[in-house]
């Protein structure tokens, strides 16, 4: 299918996203509004739309810092993520280069609707075909808050009918509530109705961005790559120092650190939902992927674990990620972990915690052994420790800085505990 010019797409969508003088009651998001009344098509513009980067709650400022460093313009911290203004090229690049984002949403338009009939009318006049394809099913999710249209199911039916009848776009069945990702063969269209404002977003990522595309083997209760990347950033890691994980599991911290040091883009090994949009430009996408500048790290990255299966998983995952030459995995109990030769760096560890992998009382000895090993053998190294149990963190005997914010991790809320150089 022929890709549509970005200027044409933004011009058509501009009629829906131009902001009038009127404001909404909510100040959490700066969404451009379509006219509150009269003709919806009241002009055209080429102003960029809002791009929203979903983040683990509590880590939005860390993701905003990463987005700013990556060159995205004026990222704004919002509840649940980070927003900035851009176009389809920025959408593609955000999916490709950002390590901490969970997914990337394109806010392609917004309009006011006070009742279902008005929603139906304006949904039928929306230029869906500029973004969505007639041969690619769409799955519609609707949420409603503080609005006269309060029945999300009825609103979803109106949107789905408009897609089918006015644009000829097929509609997939509603998603399984137990699944966070859309089906591989459907585009996720997210409709938020808040204060009578209908905001239309397209999930341009597809499967969650922690699924890098090259990690197949995982151990019990693994830490997601997106979380690992943000925790590494919180610890001041830039890729210039060695990283050691003495309880490496499937190797997430070690592999993520090695990829950062090697300049490998996190999205290099996977597909994205935007590749199935009508506005996808495959030539520009290929050019963006070629902008990567891999380099040979000046240091190596080390993981150890007492479980032989964990070492096999880590080694296999490192090979698929292309970082075998700079990673080392060894079967060792935590009490035998030692730093590599050279300058000190960062110890990053996600040990078992009570509600995740065992009884807190039985784990106290493990945390104590970890702390003793670090204090005796890792002088000059900084430590980043992830746990849901402050008591277990204190059992290490390490002098931690004030802990980071609680971050959801499955059914738990975990925190990052950091030290200055030991």
Principal-axis shape equals: elongated
Largest sheet: 7 strands, mixed
Number of strands: 14
Order of helices and strands: HEHEEHEHEHEEHEHHEHEEHHEHEE
Q: How big is the Rg?
A: 24 Å
How confident is the prediction overall: mean pLDDT?
Answer: 87
The order of strands across the largest sheet is: 2-3-1-4-7-6-5
Structural class by sheet pairing and helices: alpha/beta
Proportion of residues in helical segments:
25-40%
Percent strand: 15-25%
In DSSP terms, counting alpha (H) and pi (I) runs of 4 or more, how many helices?
12
Low-confidence stretches: 1-46
User: End-to-end distance, in Å?
Assistant: 58 Å
Describe the structure.
Helix content is 31%, strand content 19%. Helix 3 runs parallel beside helix 8 (282-289), helix 4 (116-125) runs parallel beside helix 5 and helix 6 (225-234) packs across helix 7. A 7-stranded mixed sheet has the order 2-3-1-4-7-6-5. It is built from 12 helices and 14 strands. It has 422 residues and is of the alpha/beta class. The longest helix has 18 residues, at 360-377.
